[in-house]
Amino acid sequence: MSEVHRIQEERIVLRSMIYNEEHIEVAERIISADDFIYKPNGGIFLAILELKNLELPIEHNAILQKAKTYKFSESDLLEVLSITGVANIETYSHNIKEYSLKRKLMKLATQINEDYMFDKSSSEIIGMLESEIYNITTTKESSEFKVAQEVVTKTMLYIEDMKKKGNLTLIGIDTGFRDLNKQTTGFGEGDLIIVAARPAMGKTTLVLNMAQRALDTGKGVAFFSLEMPSEQLMLRMLAAKTKISLQNLRIGDLQDGELSMLSKAADEMSKAPLFIDDNSSLTINDLKSKLKRLKTKHPEVSIAIVDYLQLMISSDNKDRHQQVSDISRGLKTLARELKMPIIALSQLNRSLESRSDRRPMLSDLRESGAIEQDADIILFVYREAVYKAKDAKEREEALKKAGEFEKAKAVQQEQIQDNEEAEIIIGKQRNGPTGTIKLQFHKRFSKFEDIALDVREPHININTELIDMPSI
């Protein structure tokens, strides 16, 4: 079919959209403005969508008022209106999309020349191709600039939608924790969330608990574990889900009732949309390729977790600071591209332990200031009991050396407790307040939980001074 006939098909679709509002929804579901081979037709398409969103009449004069904004002329519109007959809107829309995909793939093929092939590594070429093909097959209209009127319209529609939902405090992915949801409104599309702590504070446990909540609410989870085998992750998730001691699960020391609970939990987990990659040598290009393929095959995947950022490797010879910067920026752009939150765990500098107050702060983020810059939310996990246990162990050893074994035993007994208070410090939140939230940490079964509501003792300390407008 010639290009002239393709343009004629586009006009048929547009004419059908103008005279039948139901056809607008069909076409919008299949095609976007950049699928039109004749760009003014794409402009008319956008004008029709804007009028529909504003609930305004879709007729000649109303569409023509958008001509300057969307770059089409009155003669372009008259060509559309002069079409006669009734179109099979779905078939014609699929024809437009099919030809658009072929044009984009042909353009991509011409971009790969011999010089490019030899200048880049094979992993970079594969990553680029997969990224471009993913973009071609999944993205909608992405014009270089969005005019103010279009942005305002979408913003007002967003506000109206939130109002209809009753001013909900939870908009994004449920974190699993009452007060964290309240302060963050959940993890939003395109957010990069950094969960940072010193070793043994429980950052992996925290994100596993978040992953479990996402699964419980019907969301799919992709977990990239560079530090721990998938079986160990599942042990922790089962311990938290059943509230059976993690140590007992590891050695198989289970009572009949516990075995029954474990069997039920294992059956539920086996059916969950949880996907774990425990390859310990993962590059940012590998992660991008794997997550895009997974998202294409399993669109229910709504959140990704990387444990942890500093263990990712780089294929180039840049210094480590720059490598971590590239990884951080890559995760942020991937989150925006896939329109899903990505949680990345991060280590903190050892120097914080020399301070009298060892609570983390942004300057403690290890190896790169880019992490702070790229992140939308930074959460620090802090448990004072970890340091108290370390100090007690040193006192116990000193007492043993001095021969005071009874005192050493007493110090040891003081540290035996299952439940501890934990602090989740919101060190940065691009679209909301910072502050501290307290949780209960159950060591035996690897689980963080909300502290029971108690009006006598508030457990949220929030700084509300720095609040930006929410992203849309």
TrEMBL record:
InterPro entries: DNA_heli_DnaB-like_N_sf (IPR036185), DNA_helicase_DnaB (IPR007692), DNA_helicase_DnaB-like_C (IPR007694), DNA_helicase_DnaB-like_N (IPR007693), DNA_helicase_N/primase_C (IPR016136), P-loop_NTPase (IPR027417). It catalyses: ATP + H2O = ADP + phosphate + H(+). Coiled coil: none annotated. Keywords: ATP-binding, DNA replication, DNA-binding, Helicase, Hydrolase, Isomerase, Nucleotide-binding, Primosome. It is an enzyme of class 5 (isomerase). PROSITE patterns: SF4_HELICASE. One of its GO terms (molecular function) is DNA helicase activity. Residues 166-455 form the SF4 helicase domain. Its EC number is 5.6.2.3. Belongs to the helicase family. DnaB subfamily. The main replicative DNA helicase, it participates in initiation and elongation during chromosome replication. Travels ahead of the DNA replisome, separating dsDNA into templates for DNA synthesis. A processive ATP-dependent 5'-3' DNA helicase it has DNA-dependent ATPase activity. PANTHER family: REPLICATIVE DNA HELICASE, REPLICATIVE DNA HELICASE DNAB. This is Replicative DNA helicase. It comes from Helicobacter ibis. The lineage of its organism: Bacteria, Pseudomonadati, Campylobacterota, Epsilonproteobacteria, Campylobacterales.
